């Protein structure tokens, strides 16, 4: 069975109550449940992980190497300045899709730069929590699993 790891960085544990005008009212548990369900329907096992700590995120990326087909990663604020997370993504063979709930390019100038984008497969942002779903849908297509769904 194909395996996808969904990773969430700092403060995303507060989704639902954190700046809802920017991030909406959906909780992290809701997002994870949505992704696990969509994944399972397509034959993808989805594991979810959140940490507020840079080193813990680096450790999880390293541990994911050779154990997952894709990683969907919202590194939150670390996106904009973490060389350590960028290097960890570059060091592993699992392709990483960068995700953001908000459109980082429409926000403050410091959010326009992603340290991670150059070492990620692609970036999806600005679609709300559906940014995660769009990334998972891309993974399902890349794995060819959408064809199996059509014939089911
Ligand atoms: C975010 C955007 C980041 O700039 C911010 O620091 C976050 C969340 C997003 O999902 O829109 O914490 O990654």
What does this structure look like?
- With 152 residues, the chain is α/β, with parallel strands linked by helices.
- Helices cover 39% and strands 18% of the residues.
- The protein is built from 6 helices and 5 strands.
- A 5-stranded parallel beta sheet has the order 2-1-3-4-5, sandwiched between helices.
- β3 (70-74), α4 and β4 form a beta-alpha-beta unit.
- The longest helix is centred in the N-terminal third of the chain and has 15 residues, at 28-42.
- The relative contact order is 0.20.
- The site of 1,3,4-trihydroxy-5-OXO-cyclohexanecarboxylic acid has 10 residues, from loops.
Observed structural traits:
five-stranded parallel beta sheet, 6 helices, 152 residues, binds 1,3,4-trihydroxy-5-OXO-cyclohexanecarboxylic acid, alpha/beta
Short description:
The protein is of the alpha/beta class and 152 residues long. The protein is 39% helix and 18% strand. 1,3,4-trihydroxy-5-OXO-cyclohexanecarboxylic acid is lined by residues 11, 74, 76-77, 79, 100-102, 104, 111.
Itemize the secondary structure elements and their pairings.
Blueprint: E1 2-8, H1 20-23, H2 28-42, E2 44-50, H3 54-64, E3 70-74, H4 83-91, E4 96-100, E5 122-125, H5 130-142, H6 145-151
Parallel strand pairs: 1-2, 1-3, 3-4, 4-5
The structure holds 1,3,4-trihydroxy-5-OXO-cyclohexanecarboxylic acid.
SSE pattern, N- to C-terminal: EHHEHEHEEHH
Whole-number mean pLDDT: 96
Structural class, from helix and strand content?
alpha/beta
- Please summarize the sheet with the most strands: 5 strands, parallel
Q: What ligands does this structure carry?
A: 1,3,4-trihydroxy-5-OXO-cyclohexanecarboxylic acid
Number of strands: 5
Distance between the termini: 17 Å
Rg to the nearest angstrom? Answer: 15 Å
Task: Write down the overall geometry.
Answer: globular
The share of residues in extended strands comes to 15-25%
Low-confidence stretches: none
Helix segment tally: 6
Largest beta sheet: what is the strand line-up? 2-1-3-4-5
Helix content: 25-40%
């Amino acid at each position: 069975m194909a395996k996808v790891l969904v990773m969430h960085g700092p403060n995303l544990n507060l989704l639902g109550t954190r700046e809802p005008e920017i991030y909406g009212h959906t909780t992290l548990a809701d997002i994870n449940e949505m992704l696990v369900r969509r994944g399972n329907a397509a034959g993808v096992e989805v594991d979810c992980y959140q940490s507020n700590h840079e080193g813990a995120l680096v450790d999880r990326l390293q541990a994911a190497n050779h154990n997952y087909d894709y990683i969907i990663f919202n590194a939150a604020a670390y996106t904009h300045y973490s060389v350590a997370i960028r290097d960890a993504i570059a060091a592993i063979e699992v392709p990483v899709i960068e995700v953001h709930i908000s459109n980082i390019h429409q926000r403050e100038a410091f959010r326009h730069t992603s340290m991670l984008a150059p070492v990620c497969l692609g970036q999806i942002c600005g679609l709300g929590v559906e940014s995660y779903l769009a990334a998972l849908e891309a993974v399902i297509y890349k794995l060819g699993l959408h064809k199996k769904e059509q014939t089911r």
